[in-house]
From TrEMBL:
The species this protein was found in: Halomonas huangheensis
Keyword Transmembrane helix: yes
PROSITE patterns: GGDEF (PS50887)
Membrane-traversing stretches: 12-32, 39-55, 61-77, 89-109
Cross-referenced SUPFAM superfamilies: Nucleotide cyclase
Record protein name field: GGDEF domain-containing protein
Taxonomic path: Bacteria, Pseudomonadati, Pseudomonadota, Gammaproteobacteria, Oceanospirillales
Record domain GGDEF: where: 190-309
Keyword vocabulary terms for this entry: Membrane, Transmembrane, Transmembrane helix
Length: 309
């Protein structure tokens, strides 16, 4: 209920650009009609949206969302008093705009609180209560649709084995599949090695360059593992900056060769914001007389040592 709607950077930037062009076009329209007194507001809002667009392209912030919402409300306040028809269209636009930019709970409360304001802006003032029923119906319908979308998204997240930020498997799936590989190694008398990788630049990239730089690092790591490892090897995200690369039926020397291939591939790539991807690594191989709990404890200890290094 309190989670903001998730928009891709490209989609959000496209929406910002379209809105900016529409406001600029409205200003040009007023100029061509000789309505010079009505040019100022679209021009100011277009400049404000242009600022929000540039901010979104660099780093998505809460401020840009509120700027978009402010522009939408300002245009509605400017247009509603002079309209003799299409009231329901503009009222529906304000409801939809709020739900697209704010979390579901605050959006619902704000839409209900703004009902008297929108009715007062219509011709006839507070006598336009005939629009209240259609407004409340739209609020209920669109809110239920948004709630169902969030419910389906949460359900998909709960059943999705991959991490939400990258192609690696998530923490729960990692330990589940590790237990399966452990049992198979024991029953078939095979080797099992886990390459522990820590990304020391991950938090720094997010703080200095935004989420996009962080996702670029994660994508580079996952794509390199996918290209340089076997199909039955799998990468899992143990925590925020730590990853386990599980290598079934692999000796320590084989795991070191895998590490060398990964490091060579990563050294050849330079990310725009952060440069080459830096890894801290440790190798942990399964002992012949070791149980699963002890093996996972050793993995956790070595992971912690990389984080604190």
């Amino acid at each position: 209920m309190n989670e903001s709607p998730q928009w891709s950077t490209r989609l959000r930037a496209s929406a910002d650009v379209i809105a900016t062009l529409m406001l600029a076009g409205l200003a040009v329209w007023h100029y061509l009609l000789g309505e010079y007194e009505q040019i100022i507001l679209p021009v100011l809002l277009a400049c404000l949206l242009l600022f929000a667009t540039l901010a979104d392209m660099r780093r998505k912030t809460v401020l840009s969302g509120w700027l978009l919402l402010l522009c939408g409300y300002t245009m509605a306040i400017d247009r509603l008093p002079g309209l003799h028809e299409f009231h329901d269209f503009w009222l529906a636009a304000t409801i939809t705009f709020t739900l697209l930019l704010l979390p579901l709970g605050p959006a619902l409360i704000l839409n209900l609180l703004l009902l008297p304001l929108w009715l007062a802006l219509l011709d006839g003032g507070m006598e336009e209560w005939s629009h209240a029923l259609s407004y409340l119906t739209l609020v209920s319908t669109l809110t239920l649709a948004a709630w169902e979308h969030l419910r389906q998204r949460d359900l998909a997240r709960a059943t999705d084995p991959t991490d939400p930020d990258c192609d690696a498997v998530n923490h729960a799936t990692l330990h589940e599949r590790l237990a399966g590989e452990f049992d198979r190694a024991k029953h078939l008398n095979q080797r099992l090695a886990v390459l522990i990788m820590h990304l020391p630049q991950l938090d720094l990239a997010s703080e200095q360059f935004g989420t996009r730089a962080q996702l670029a690092q994660l994508d580079l790591l996952c794509s390199t593992v996918r290209n340089k490892c076997r199909n039955h090897d799998f990468l899992g995200r143990e925590n925020h900056a730590d990853f386990w690369l599980v290598l079934p039926n692999t000796t320590e020397s084989g795991a070191l060769l895998v590490l060398k291939r990964l490091e060579q591939a990563l050294d050849e790539v330079r990310l725009i914001d952060t440069g080459p991807l830096t890894l801290r690594t440790q190798l942990c191989a399964l002992h012949s007389d070791e149980n699963l709990n002890h093996f996972e404890q050793r993995l956790a200890i070595r992971t912690q040592s990389l984080t604190e290094a």
